[in-house]
Design a protein that fits this description.
This protein has one helix at about 5-20, and strands at about 65-70, 80, 85-90, 115-125, 130-140, 155, 160-165, 170-175, 180-185, 210, 215-220, 225-230, 235-240, 250-255, 260-265, 270-275, 280-285, 295-300, 300-305, 315-320, 325, 335-340, 350-355, 355-360, 365-370, 375-380, 395, 400-405, 410-415, 420-425, 435-440, 440-445, 450-455. By secondary structure, the chain is mostly beta strands. Strands 14-15-16-17-21 form a five-stranded mixed β-sheet, with no helix packed on it. It has a four-stranded antiparallel β-sheet with strand order 1-33-32-31, with no helix packed on it.
Length: about 450
């Protein structure tokens, strides 16, 4: 990055520390703010600062701070200025179980105790808890999977509002100081295996904020929909029904060709919607039947992947797509789909486009690199030993890719056409949540903590 951009980043960082949040509301600052799941537009990228390569949390190496967060939550940290937000759900059980690893058990956790759903605000620089708010107290209305939590949806912020989605327990909007502005009951949102209704797995889709709207994707057993709500008061602006089984991916917004589109993953209905009206713009059939990854946009394409059951595709859809863009049998492209790979898709992990390359990892750690514009494979390598699960999505910055295993090992990969492992770093705890990056600092949410990682300058 050139000197002017670096200077601008430094000024924005200083503003974040010195000015009220409302005065920097219009600032983009992608290298400072990380406003939702995977940052801006779910890209997973933050540039402008050097990012750490090596650390060891159990040994205290390059750990800036470590703050304990009670309960269970797979929600990722989000950041605006010097404030970091994260959510959790605290069970009435003394030691609620979380089972990680590669397995196919569809059962739910039987925990009928009273839970507390909490939003935390931390100081990004020190890890000090600035405030915490109990959003809801009660027995969960829907059970969770043995690998899931009741706080799996990542919150979102625009510098004035903090929005936390707790599925069947509701949607909550706070100001930056923790004042509850409004809350909304969306009814029972039953996410689970569509073929076995009793297998309830918990809600996972995260809200996103775009200008004055909150967008939600609620694909559930009955009554699936996407919707737009007013950020001011939670009023529903539009709701579009979806004929869809439960999914866990988050929506993505993109502006292209004079229109603003909302992209969503799905099994029966991968789709694009007009963000202003909710009108369907395009639809695509054909995918894995338990969609989890979030769509991402780069190079005038929207990349969508899923994997379970008969199919495991990767699609690269043109932003100008319209109508039913489903591929004819035994074809991998058409006017609207630039390319498709039928068996290289990811089950759990949202892919990453960094530069000219698309990185897709399966939940067993098999990482593939493709040319983003063509789908041509560049390499395929394995992270881990093949026995460890990968659920957290990757992030990138400073020419590095960060992949976290469920066991808490973070693999640092050099970006580019040649696979090069730069380091494998221990978090010392289960790591299911996608990390955040701000001003070159990495923020990880582990099973019991939020941890700030910053490489110390040499000689200090």
């Amino acid at each position: 990055m050139n000197r002017l951009a670096l200077r601008l980043a430094s000024i924005l960082s200083l503003l974040a520390m010195l000015l009220p949040v409302s005065l920097i509301k219009g600032t983009t600052a992608p290298n400072v703010n990380w406003p939702a799941f995977r940052g801006s537009n779910a890209s997973g990228i933050a540039e402008g600062f050097p990012t750490p390569t090596r650390w060891n949390v159990p040994a205290g190496e390059n750990v800036k701070w470590k703050t304990a967060i009670p309960g269970l939550g797979h929600s990722s940290p989000v950041i605006w200025g010097n404030r970091l937000f994260v959510t959790t759900a605290i069970s009435g059980q003394t030691d609620p179980k979380l089972r990680v690893g590669l397995y196919g058990d569809i059962r739910s956790v039987d925990d009928g105790t009273v839970h507390k759903w909490i939003v935390y605000c931390l100081d990004k620089r020190t890890g000090k808890i600035l405030w915490e708010r109990v959003a809801y107290t009660g027995v969960p209305k829907i059970k969770r999977h043995t690998k899931a939590t009741h706080a799996s949806s990542t919150p979102a912020t625009d510098g004035r509002h903090v929005v936390a989605m707790f599925g069947s327990e509701g949607l909550y909007c706070y100001d930056m100081n923790g004042k509850l502005l409004w809350k909304k009951d969306l009814g029972v949102l039953d996410s689970g295996y569509y073929q076995v209704a009793s297998a309830q797995w918990g809600f996972g889709s995260s809200p996103i904020i775009f200008k004055d709207k909150i967008f939600l994707q609620c694909d559930v057993q009955k009554g699936s929909f996407v919707a737009a709500l007013s950020i001011k008061d939670g009023r529903e602006l539009w709701r579009t029904p979806r004929e869809e089984v439960p999914t866990w991916g988050s929506p993505t917004v993109s502006q292209a060709g004079g229109r603003t589109l909302l992209f969503v993953n799905g099994y029966k209905h991968i789709g694009g919607y007009d963000a202003e009206t909710g009108k369907e713009v395009w639809r695509l059939k054909g995918g894995g039947d338990i969609p989890v990854p979030t769509p991402i946009v780069a190079h005038n394409l929207v990349f969508i992947t899923n994997a379970h059951g008969r199919m495991a595709p990767i699609y690269a859809v043109r932003l100008e797509a319209a109508g039913d863009i489903s591929l004819a049998e035994n074809t991998t492209s058409n006017k609207h789909v630039a390319w498709m790979l039928p068996r290289d898709g990811a089950y759990m992990i949202t892919p990453l486009v960094y530069g000219d390359y698309l990185y897709v990892s399966k939940d067993n750690g098999v990482l593939s690199c493709f040319e983003a514009r063509t789908g041509t494979r560049v390499y395929q390598e394995r992270l881990g030993d093949g026995k460890t699960g990968f659920t957290a999505s990757p992030v990138a910055g400073d020419g590095k890719l960060y992949y976290s295993s469920e066991d808490g090992d973070v693999h640092v990969i050099k970006a580019g056409t040649k696979f090069e492992m730069l380091a494998k770093n221990s978090m010392g705890e289960v790591c299911m949540a996608t990390p955040a990056i701000s001003e070159g600092v990495l923020f990880f949410r582990t099973q019991g903590h939020v941890v700030s990682i910053a490489e110390k300058p040499s000689g200090k």
